[in-house]
UniProtKB/TrEMBL annotation:
Organism: Paenibacillus flagellatus
KW Nuclease (keyword) present: yes
Residue stretches making up the Endoribonuclease YicC-like N-terminal domain: 2-156
Keyword annotations from UniProtKB, A to Z: Endonuclease, Hydrolase, Nuclease
Protein name: YicC family protein
Length: 295
């Protein structure tokens, strides 16, 4: 199935008190390139993220963004430093006895002591979170691929339509080509008759006429170019049905068809053929633009 190189995919997961989000964006690129942005503390999973993407995306530049954040209410735990609180209590009692103080130690006093009560971040179990992270990326990749396939189907329909148009133009040129030789034969016979004084019509089997027309026919023969164009068109159609990435192959065939078309144009001086060559080049240029977005 034809795939575009442009697309977007996103997925969300939750695991171990963390919210995970993966976003993937792909654009055209001659080769395959993956750039990953994710929190520094989870960089150990970066290679796994790249492998998940590489398994499904063979060509194009993919920017992957992975966010991992603690969910509300699960970020920290309150811890009490009991030895410190006890030491503070004992110190307060000694001060009270020594200076004859009557004030009692209150909860507010204890809580005000630095370090007695502290908020500690939980140390997560990295394994399940890393697994959820990769699963989130896998789902984002599936979403990305679905979009690339949908866009690829549109590109395939467009290219197929242009191939139909090219095939029609090739047939029309093939039908016009023999007329070019006959036109040349008639004009040449007229010129030779004028050079000979116009006293008699030039016979079709006159050796001078036959030799000159044969040279012209060989010089302007486009049968091979037309045959190769028909072959290339058939190859392109088969590529549109292929399961593997075909963007580069399609681009190569379009270049070859453009070369054959240019050759036909340089060999032809018949207006009907030249006009069709112009139409073919316009179709090929549009196909080339589409092929550059195909994986």
């Amino acid at each position: 199935m034809i795939r575009s190189m442009t697309g977007f995919g996103q997925s969300d997961r939750a695991a171990g008190g963390f919210a995970i989000r993966a976003e993937l964006k792909s654009v055209n690129h001659r080769y395959g390139e993956i750039a990953v942005r994710m929190p520094r503390e989870w960089l150990s999973s970066e290679e796994g993220v790249k492998r998940e993407i590489q398994a499904a995306v063979k060509r194009g530049k993919v920017d992957a963004y992975v966010a991992i954040e603690r969910e509300a209410g699960t970020a920290k735990t309150v811890e009490i430093d009991w030895p410190l609180a006890e030491a503070y209590r004992q110190a307060a009692e000694r001060l009270k006895e020594r200076f004859g103080l009557s004030d009692s130690l209150t909860l507010r006093d204890v809580l005000a002591v630095p370090g007695v009560v502290a908020m500690r971040e939980d140390v997560p179990d990295a394994g399940p979170i890393a697994d959820a992270l990769l699963e989130c990326v896998r789902e984002a990749v599936k979403s990305l691929v679905r979009m690339r396939e949908a866009e690829g189907a549109h590109l395939a329909r467009d290219v197929a339509g242009r191939l139909d148009r090219l095939e029609t133009l090739v047939r029309e040129i093939g039908a016009e080509a023999p007329k070019a030789v006959e036109d040349y034969r008639a004009k040449l016979a007229e010129k030779l008759a004028d050079l000979l004084g116009g006293t008699a019509a030039m016979q079709p089997d006159d050796p001078r006429l036959v030799a000159e027309v044969a040279i012209m026919a060989e010089r302007t023969d486009i049968a091979e170019e037309l045959s190769r164009l028909e072959s290339h068109i058939g190859q392109c159609r088969r590529l549109l049905e292929a399961e593997e990435p075909v963007g580069r192959k399609l681009d190569f065939l379009i270049q070859e068809m453009n070369r054959e078309t240019n050759t036909i144009g340089s060999k032809s001086n018949r207006l009907d053929i030249v006009n069709r060559v112009v139409d073919m080049k316009a179709e090929l240029e549009k196909m080339r633009e589409q092929a550059q977005n195909i994986e």
